[in-house]
Amino acid sequence: MVKPQLSILVDFHQWIRLAGEVEPLFGPMVEDPGFHEGLRRSISEGNAFCVRVSDGESGSTLQGGIIISREENEILWFAVAQGCRGQGIGKALLEEAIGHLDQSRPMTVITFDKSVEAGIPARRLYRMYGFDDHRPGDLNPAGVPTVIMARLNERG
User: Fold this and answer.
1) CB 20 within 8 A of CB 30
2) Is 130 left (phi over 0), alpha (psi -120 to 50) or beta?
């Protein structure tokens, strides 16, 4: 069973490795000081969750990670390493994130527009958890069309 954990600052370089895998779809992050600062802040504030496997003496490898904003009730960043997809890691991370957000308020996430073939698995996963297209987003830093998906509370 996949169990997400609160990320710690020792994981930072593994987050950067994962960011490098998804840069073609997300946009530049590996060399972006703003991304580094935001990532460190999210980890320090307890808003970053990950699935990692121990590599013995060499440390651990991040299989996936998700970052939330409790203030905005939003999923800010979410990725699963390419070689680890289809193993339930994304589902476990999304459940963890939802569990730390306010169920009484709408939750949002910026994800890929339905026209982006590489984004279909992410959209499918969000839909499984009650997210629907809410409004069009902008092009992300990689030039990929996005949409804002929302999971509304019982009151709408």
Assistant:
1) yes
2) left
pLDDT in tens, 9-61: 999 999 999 999 999 999 999 999 999 999 999 999 999 999 998 776 666 78
132-139/107-112 β-pairing: unpaired
- One DSSP character per residue, 33-94 reads HHHHHHHHHHHHTT-EEEEEEE-GGG-EEEEEEEEEETTTTEEEEEEE-GGGTTSSHHHHHH
State how far the Cα of 72 lies from the Cα of 106, in Å rounded to an integer: 9
Over the Cα atoms of the chain, what is R_g? 15
- What's the pTM? 0.93
CATH class of 5-151: alpha beta
Give φ, ψ of 24 to 5 degrees. Answer: -60, -30
